[in-house]
Amino acid sequence: MKTTPGTAAVQEPKAGGLRGFFDNGKRQRILVIVTFMILPMILLFMFTYLPFFKMIQFSFYDRNYLSEGTFVGLKNYINVFKRDDCFKTLWVSVFYMGGAVVQLALALFFASLMVFKVKGSNLYKACLFFPYLICGIAVGFIFKFFYAHGYVLDNILMALGVAEENIPLWLQNTKINNICLAATSVWRYTGQNMVMFMGAMMSVDNSLYEACALDGANNWQKFRYIILPSIKTIIVLNLILSISGSLCAFEPPYVITNGTMGTGTYFVIMNRIAHENQKVGLACAMAIVLLAIIILCTVGQKLFFKYAFKASDDGSDPKPRLRNERYAAKKAAGKAGA
Q: Regarding the domain with residue range 82-310, which homologous superfamily does it belong to in the CATH classification?
């Protein structure tokens, strides 16, 4: 509205139509958000949610990739638990879970060494992290020849004085072949977890280390009372991811042994049933069952760590704080007695 001396107020005409609709700043922001989101959402639906819902649908049918199949209800799910080559193969994942625990322990150990300024730490970090950069299929081929009878590992042991007849068949011996395959995952992922632990350790306030040094604490006490409580969240996260990943182990057994001689993991057998045996419905049911198991394991781990490391009302962990108070009290008592 415009006014001039001696004249009546003049009402400015409002823009109408589509232009007037988009003149509103709030509508413009909504339009920008929708415009930038619509393509990613379409792609997410096409390549994630739609295949997932189709997989659920296929799990109720006896079919292959080309035929429409016949509806069988819950028969595929029942077969997952009844067949020896389906659900029971999850026991093979126990070896990979054990390897995940060893892998996290080694990563935590190496990360602690690097934080305490070991000479040549940059070279060690590069060497430990390098295996993670190698493609999983390539890692499988590396260890396929590494474990092959008469090749790398056998030659190393013979060079160290071990008699050839005392060297086992690493991939054919059912007592140790799954341990050997789990060791490939330890070799590959230790460096990745080490880097994550180091990032968490470096975020700890340096004044805490300085206070410990003034009190005469050694490196073990710094690790126990400062580092470990401070990176508890990262340890729990890595443990959950490692155990969930152990249930999905695929590349080492598929490339190295093709799942033979008792090394077939759940994913390897599922791939064989779907692609070689053309039982798509049964393979989809196996995938749904595995998804449910992973969800249950993740929730169970979170509940376990929630109660095992119950936090105080302010979000801090009381157990390390109480240990630190007892440690400080002992130090004070020792100084007073002296």
A: MetI-like (1.10.3720.10)
